[in-house]
Design brief:
The chain is an all-alpha fold. Helix content is about 75%, strand content about 0%. It has 20 helices and no strands. Helix 17 runs antiparallel to helix 19.
Length: about 450
């Protein structure tokens, strides 16, 4: 059994051909992504005559020593409990009272709801399937928005969820890079808020051009009642972020706190969570967790193959030979991921390509916290970029709106977020200001 690592820059080997061929075949056949990645890893081991037991060995050695992975199923559970407890509807009422009165009000409300929900869920898909569906229904029925535009707004707003803490993709990035989760969570706050403001500006411009109405005006006299009704729900992000930054519990432990707090709100206060509801919530959370964990486990196998073939060293050597500066490197990475995002899921890029780029970023002196926020925002833009755009498929499937109707409307939001991404790349301190203020260097 030959486990010797190959020199950087070596040519393609039979093992790599077997891996790439298997993955390409699985993608063409539209097989489940985790199975495709496991299959590619198995094909690599067979072709290189290595022990197939490495499939198990690599997964177990990695997953049993990474405590941070506990956060993922807990955040998924917390988000599903919040959906079952009607928290999305309460957040909608608050957001409507605050920004619904402006031109294109329901679009603004959708973005603000996503920003609030982002501080509780950490998942773009959860955001789209929870408050996103409520938003689409409101925009179509009350605001008379075109169906494609309503879905495009909801999909674009859902991209904020993995940037504003807590965030499942940032937890995974911390796992890959060794960056501090606390620093990443702090670094995501300002870019997340800027994403919301950017989308609101785009919606305002569309509303002016198309004559979209404001939402229902909530009299000032009713504001206290609306806020009071949603006040318990709004305590969740305060408890989470306050507990993390005060040191009461770690960012990983915050996921369990989020699930427990959501359960208390949904069962004891709102009385929406019954035994049969809780059974469904746990079942759905188990399915989503299994899917996510299989994906992570399969990525460990591919990462082993990439490391064994010396591809990371080859990439670092290639970038070094090109004499790229930090800014040029960041622009090249952004262009690379924006193009790949048209065809690949963000989780694949995070788990397969980011580990290859981290050594180069470190060698160029790029802050890994800043790098994590930038690549994660790249992946979020990819979620709404045709032709693959996973969130576009999710919204089309959930609302039964034709995919092409959504695609025609989403480009303005892709452009808006792309301009914000360029701003964040050019001015790293926008991202790093808060982590540095809290003592993370």
């Amino acid at each position: 059994m030959d486990r010797r690592r190959r020199p950087a820059g070596a040519d393609m080997t039979p093992g790599l051909y077997a891996l790439l061929g298997t993955v390409l075949f699985g993608a063409i056949m539209r097989l489940p992504l985790a199975l495709v990645m496991f299959g590619g890893g198995a094909a690599y081991l067979f072709a290189t005559r290595q022990d197939i037991g490495l499939l198990v060995g690599q997964v177990m050695s990695q997953m049993t020593t990474m405590y941070v992975l506990v956060a993922i199923p807990m955040f998924i559970l917390a988000a599903n409990i919040m959906n079952a407890a009607s928290i999305s509807e309460r957040l909608w009422a608050v957001a409507n009272a605050l920004v619904g009165r402006f031109k294109g009000g329901m679009g603004h409300v959708t973005v603000l709801v996503s920003m609030i929900f982002s501080s509780m869920s950490g998942s773009a898909i959860t955001d789209a399937a929870g408050p996103g569906l409520v938003a689409v229904r409101m925009m179509r029925q009350i605001g008379k928005y075109p169906a494609g535009l309503a879905c495009a707004i909801a999909a674009a707003a859902a991209t904020i969820a993995p940037i504003i803490p807590p965030s499942i993709p940032l937890v995974i990035y911390a796992l890959i890079s060794g960056a501090s989760i606390g620093a990443l969570f702090l670094a995501g706050l300002v870019p997340g808020v800027l994403m919301g403001l950017t989308l609101m500006i785009a919606i305002w411009l569309i509303a002016r051009k198309r004559g979209l109405p404001a939402a229902e005006h909530v009299p000032l006299a009713q504001m206290p009642a609306v806020m009071l009704r949603a006040a318990p729900s709004l305590t969740l992000p305060v408890v989470l972020l306050g507990g993390i930054w005060s040191g009461i519990f770690s960012p990983t432990e915050s996921a369990s706190v989020a699930a427990l707090w959501a359960l208390v709100l949904g069962s004891a206060l709102y009385r929406k969570i019954k035994l049969h509801t809780l059974r469904d919530v746990f079942a759905e959370s188990s399915r989503q967790t299994a899917t996510t964990m299989l994906l992570i486990a399969s990525a460990f196998i591919l990462n082993y193959a990439i490391t064994n073939e010396g591809l990371a060293d080859a990439l670092v050597a290639q970038i070094t030979a090109m004499n790229l500066g930090p800014m040029q490197f960041m622009l090249a990475v952004t262009l690379f991921f924006l193009v790949l995002g048209c065809f690949l899921d963000g989780s694949v890029m995070m788990l397969v390509f980011v580990p290859l780029l981290i050594p180069s970023a470190r060698a160029l002196g790029i802050d890994l916290t800043y790098f994590g926020i930038i690549v994660t925002l790249n992946f979020m833009i990819g979620l709404i970029t045709p032709p693959y755009g996973l969130l576009l498929f999710v919204m089309s499937s959930l609302t039964r709106v034709p995919l092409m109707d959504i695609v025609r409307e989403v480009w303005v939001f892709v452009l808006a977020l792309g301009l914000l991404l360029a701003l964040l790349i050019w001015f790293p301190q926008i991202t790093l200001f808060l982590p540095h203020a809290f003592g993370y260097k």
